[in-house]
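The freezer alarm interrupted the setup, so I double-checked each line after restarting. Inputs confirmed:
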Amino acid sequence: MWEFAARSLDAATVFTIAALGELIGQRSGILNVGIEGVMLFGATLGFIVAKNTGDYLLGFVAAIAIGGLIAALHGFLSITLGGDQVVNGMGIWILGFGLTAYIGYSYTGPLGMERLPDVAGLSPFFFLAIGLVILTWWVFSKTSLGLQIRSAGENPSVTEVSGINVTRTRYLSVVVSGMLMGLAGAIYSLDYNPVWSVNFLLGWGFIALALVFFSLWNPFILLGGSILFGTLWQFSLNPQLILPSVLSRYIWRTVPFIITIAVLVLMSTKWFSSRWGAAKPEALGLPRKDE
Amino acid sequence: MKLGSYEVKLEKKAKVTGWEAATISLLAILIGLALVGLIFRQAGVNPLTGYRAMFSYGFLNEFGLPLTINRSIFILLCTCAFIIPMRAGLWNIGMAGQLYGGALGAFGVALAFGARESQNPTVAPGFLIALMMLGALLGGAVVGAIPGFLKGRFNTNEIVVTMMLNSIVFWLVAYMIKEGGPFMGGGGEGQGFTLSQSIRPPTALGGPFTIPLALGLAGLLYFMFAKATLGYQIKAFGLSPSAAKYAGISPQNVTLLVFILGGAIAGLAGYHYFAAVPGVSKIPLNYGDFGDLSFYGIICGLISMGNPLVAIPFALLFGGLTNGGRFVQGQLQLGYGIDYALLGILMITLVAFQYFYRNTVVWKKMEREQ
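Predicted 3D structure, all chains:
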């Protein structure tokens, strides 16, 4: 049972860090539905670098760098070229999915390195995730940088007039957001499940995306949601451990995705938006019109 | 920006002409292919040699060409499934889930009438083939109806819902064909049962009968968008949902309808590859690869700007490129997945080139300053 809880928290770690990344980007007004693609880049490149150099640290650094780079590409398409952010994100996802299938294929199989050490039976990244949650909350609610990012996501025109460079703020947020997504991917491929195969994130990025909506852009709710989805996912891998012979494990695999759809539907109802709609960044996903 | 005696400026534009669109698409494809050429180089293969090998296997080889055509028809059906919602301004990227749904529908019908291999179906084979196709259309339509309904009723983002459904139906298929699921085939290899000989569908001119069917369907869709009331309503809704509403078009109905139609056609793509293409006749172990292949439907739909007839040659091109790519990666000792790399790179180039649908490059000769 302890083993199950620990693995659930490991899964939750990946969700938390990836979703925090998405949250930071969305707070500045940039929606990235290609989070799965960015994570695939981080996971694959991190895996390859770690395997070739035998150094975990270099793997994580590479993952963070490529995550930032791919997110910058999304930023370029969405901020500078001003295209539809959802379409651009879809492009980023398919780019990540297609290119990493090619790049990583010859590395199919286990990482074959000594596992990263545990801290009190948990992945060290779990503590990093909690630290990042607190840091994100602090930046957004206590610092002027956080206020600047939030106002870029709420009302870019007014922000611009008040002397803040919205474009620069958004680029900064998007790149940081991609670095976290890349890191989350590498935690998946180097710590949680160090075996590479094609498209091996199995939709975790999309779950992380939904978690951001679920969290109402609040890092602490996001942490709670991640733990819920991490537990669900872990349960779906081996449901017979807890509920023997209740539905196949393949059926359980669909549950996180079904809940995600349910959450999205709930959030798009009038009932919901009239109560908590204000939490959503006002300018999320909208191209700038004031230029 | 100044280049010599010319001034280059970007200007917003409201409308793209057919020729402009064709130029933009062609340029995007060429740049995409050039970028993949860099991958060839990096793998130590001359890009020209690589592309020549891809094209000659994909289009000129007696074994390669039939495979190319089967793939192209699959891509064409996925493109049609993408185009119908696209004309209504909606994004269907759930062709993967919808074609899995179609496969489940078709094979469910086959199973219900005892059409496993080494058994004889309980009804006339011709009738059962028609029923299986109906099952495929229905299976795809059900999966498609979900995002259509949710978008129309609650305005839930259809892109995220269709992405989720791709995963959900993927696992449903795994449940059906693996580990003792109801569709599991003999041998315990984790693939679906094989259809009995009598209901492998007829061939037309040596290929599966779904080839003329898909081409006819593309023609029908073209006619629908060009001449029929329904096509007009879909287009009107795509151009301006609020204006369409005042013209008496129900947004909820149009949204649901385009996704049901798209889903049904994607379901037919599943029937085509798993039941009608000779030598498959089952839901194979690697059914996920076909879900991945369905994303070429997005590329094809974007390039053809929603015109189903224009999509036909592009479907053929991508069918040949992916098929040839799979062949050359073995022959030239490239890594696996050159067709995946091509998919990813073409997708992002096309997305980036959408910019030129909204903006135009203007060259102006500057007056010489004395």
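Quick read of the result. The first helix of chain A runs from residue 2 to 27.
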